[in-house]
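User
New here, explain this?
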Amino acid sequence: MTFTSLDSLGKTNIMLDLISQRQRALGANVANVDTPGYVRRDIDFSQYLGTMNSPLETKLSTELGPSGVIEDRRRQEVDIAEELTEMQKNALLYTMATRRMSNIITEMRTVVNVGK
């Protein structure tokens, strides 16, 4: 097993955690679409991804912004169409991350089997 595989495994795990947190935040926004005074929440990945040092992660961090759950004070009301669009984008990120995780596991299996 290579250190690169272990490093990629950790990074992909972080990415899956962030995607999960974002899905929860977006789901809460949809659930509270009619709640008076509710402030929209979101997850921004850039601080986390900026430390991962890969061109794809750098591109994602540029597009997605700072880390953590943030309250979006620019818009007090939740726009259901926009939330559903963001949920779809998040689903695409999930697909990408799970495929990456699958590739890492396949690579690790190959290394183990070659070493037998």
Q: What stands out?
A: The CA atoms of residues 12 and 97 lie 6 Å apart. The helical segments are 3-31, 46-49, 55-64, 80-114. The chain has one domain: 3-114. The first strand starts at residue 41 and ends at 43.
